[in-house]
Amino acid sequence: MYFFIIIVSYFVTPLRQELIIDVAKFRYSNPIPLWQRVAGINFIPLKTIIYYLGGKPSVNIAIQNLSGNILAFCPLGFLLPLLFRTCNNSKKIFFISAGISFFIELIQEIFYLGSGDIDDLTLNVLGSLLGFAVYCLLKWLTKSKVEIAS
Q1: Fewer CB atoms near the end CB (10 Å): N or C, the chain?
Q2: The whole model's pTM is what?
Q3: pLDDT of 98-114, one tens digit each?
């Protein structure tokens, strides 16, 4: 589980030394008031997703952003029920992945590593639920094969 969080943190939040140094320089030389940072967050659901589905700014960037947010969280939905018996339904997967995604968005805002977007949270949760669906499908397939073999 810790490995997954480290991998997601690496890909979702670009935590590279040069970037952190650049961000620190920018933050202290050009501080942005909190109200401006909050005003820059996208709170409108589907706004960014629809923008990307329109092929903007380019089809490649749209595919990378949409699929990247979904695929980054698929392992979470698959691994949670494997590692924790209590994470055995979609409601729990939904809330855990929403919490982790919210935390990542918050870290991005605090450390100037990106901009907050409700659609990122939506896509991340969708990815977790897809991962959970794969887990359920594989569990069902292995159970039915065992019954057929008996």
Answers
A1: C
A2: 0.77
A3: 999 999 998 888 877 77
